[in-house]
Amino acid sequence: MKKLIFLRHGQSFYKDVFPDLTDEGREGARQAAKRISAVVFGQRVKIISSPSPRALGTAAILGANIYQDGVSINFYNHKDELIRPMDKYDPPTLDKYWNSFPTLAMTDMDYMTNPMFETGEIAEKQSSIKIRLKAFLDKAIKFLMEDENIDVLIAVSHTEVLSWLTFHHGIKETIKNCEEVIIYFDEKNKIKPILRFRDKSKYFSFEPLLELNPA
Questions:
Q1: Half-sphere exposure of 211 (CA within 13 A, CB side)
Q2: d(CA 209, CA 8)
Q3: What is the tens place of the pLDDT at every residue in 10-31?
Q4: Is 104 helix (H, G, I), strand (E, B) or coil?
Q5: Could you give the angle at the alpha carbon of 154 between the alpha carbons of 203 and 177, nearest 5°?
Q6: Full-prediction pTM beyond 0.85?
Q7: From CA 119, how far away is CA 127, in angstroms rounded?
Q8: Domains in the chain, please, with CATH?
Q9: What is the 3-state secondary structure (H, E, C) of 176-214?
Q10: Of 202, 187, 194, whose CA–CA distance to 1 is shortest?
Q11: What is the dihedral of CA 140, 144, 146, 151, to 10 degrees?
Q12: CA–CA gap between residue 42 and residue 37 (Å, rounded)
């Protein structure tokens, strides 16, 4: 069974200097590698990442710590701009606004639910990020299904990108640092893809994302 695994990067200093992870972020990435090892054991894995240093740092730790018992991990610092963090147009205003929230989780949820961010004045529009995610999904699933040498594709990205996967499947929860969302593909038995996040499972559907294609 092929798998597409999305992982949010580890806790970061947000200094944009590789690997840009706190000690907790590094440990979180190692713990994520242990969990993912149990899911992908014996399968051929390719890891790709957002170009952000904190995502690349997380991806590097994954590549070094996923236990495969001789099965290769393919990570060549491969970056994909489609899963980059949001583009900030007015960083001082955006940072001042988000610093008013007591927790990071609250800022994450605010971006996902506040219509202010669809104006595109201080940060990339929510709809723009959804379109990027849809484009990445199209490309990633096509690659995964067509490449006979890869069983699992792991993509390391950011909550403002990945949380649309959960939101559009009725799970109104943002993705925390080093949390994964897994999509299982059982092409052999013609079973619908399954999206799993925490203790929740949903049939994976493109339908909520198809409407995001630009006209």
A1: 4
A2: 20
A3: 999 999 999 999 999 999 999 9
A4: helix
A5: 85
A6: yes
A7: 10
A8: 8-180 (3.40.50.1240)
A9: CCCCEEEEEEECCCCEEEEEEECCEEEECCCHHHHCCCC
A10: 187
A11: 170
A12: 9
Pairing of strands 73-74, 191-197: unpaired
- With a CB cutoff of 8 Å and minimum separation 6, the contacts of 103 are none
111 in Cβ contact with 126 (< 8 Å):
yes
Give the CA count within 13 Å in the CB-facing half-sphere of 49: 23
Query: Are 28 and 213 contacting, i.e. CB atoms less than 8 angstroms apart?
Result: no
Would you place residue 66 in the very low, low, confident or very high pLDDT band (cuts 50, 70, 90)?
confident
Strand segments (E) across the chain = 2-8, 45-49, 73-74, 152-157, 180-186, 191-197, 200-203
* Residue 8 in tokens: 């949010």
Given the structure tokens 């699933």, which residue do they identify?
141
What tokens were used for 125?
């529009």
